[in-house]
Amino acid sequence: MISSSSLGKKVSVCATWTCVILCLTLLVLTGASWASKGPKRPSAGKPAPEFVLTGLAGDDSVTLSKLRGKVVFVDFWASWCLPCRQLMPRIAELKDRYPEIEIVAVSVDANREKAITFLRGVEPSLRAVHDANHAVADAYGVEQMPSSFVIDREGKLRFRHDGYKAKDLDGIARQIQLLLDE
């Protein structure tokens, strides 16, 4: 015969384990939900997400689809990003080396003036546009600064680069040359 106190302990232990299992299941499901809501990364070989962005100067805009037929290098940057400060002059060197490519430098700064001041200080020759609400950065799945993309003549995303190290530019230059040779 089982005593009522012994039965109560068994029920209590069983209820505790049931609660623990339910909580763990809920945590796993919640985590999976958060993970699925992260930035969607476009796939290489697929069309690059379309954008129309106003130039930092405010008097022009860039529409990606109007650049079809050209190899396009799109770089997302911010004034607070130290690696961006190092990368910008190197991007201008790419344009000098490959004058037939289009380079679009996309600022994600909320403050347009900070972006303009930054660009004047590091590389004023770049064609820069403004994505203050991060809609385009989100469409490209940008998670860190700088992030850059190489798009082929057909408008397909071919290469992606997250972050920046000096040696990265050699690889980017090879990728650009590969696309120019196609």
Would you kindly provide a written description of the structure presented here, covering whatever features stand out?
With 182 residues, the protein is an alpha/beta fold. It folds into 2 domains: 1-37; 52-181, Glutaredoxin (3-Layer(aba) Sandwich), CATH 3.40.30. Helices cover 43% and strands 18% of the residues. The protein is built from 5 helices and 7 strands; from the N terminus they run αβββαβαβαββα. It has helices at residues 4-36, 82-97, 112-122, 135-139, 168-181; strands at 52-54, 61-63, 72-77, 102-107, 128-130, 147-151, 157-162. A 5-stranded mixed β-sheet has the order 5-4-3-6-7. Strands 1-2 form a two-stranded antiparallel ribbon. Helix 2 links the parallel strand 3 and strand 4 (102-107). The longest helix has 33 residues, at 4-36. The termini are far apart.
Helix and strand composition category? alpha/beta
Strand order of the largest sheet: 5-4-3-6-7
Terminus-to-terminus distance: 84 Å
Specify the CATH class of the largest domain.
Alpha Beta
Number of helices: 5
Unreliable segments (pLDDT under 50, ≥5 consecutive)? 22-37
Task: Specify the CATH architecture of the largest domain.
Answer: 3-Layer(aba) Sandwich
Largest sheet: 5 strands, mixed
- The CATH topology of the largest domain is given as Glutaredoxin
Q: What count of structural domains?
A: 2
The percent range for helix content is 40-55%
| Rg from Cα | 25 Å
As a percent range, the share of strand residues is 15-25%
Morphology: globular
- The count of strands amounts to 7
The CATH superfamily of the largest domain appears as Glutaredoxin
**Chain-averaged pLDDT:** 84
Q: What is the helix/strand order? A: HEEEHEHEHEEH
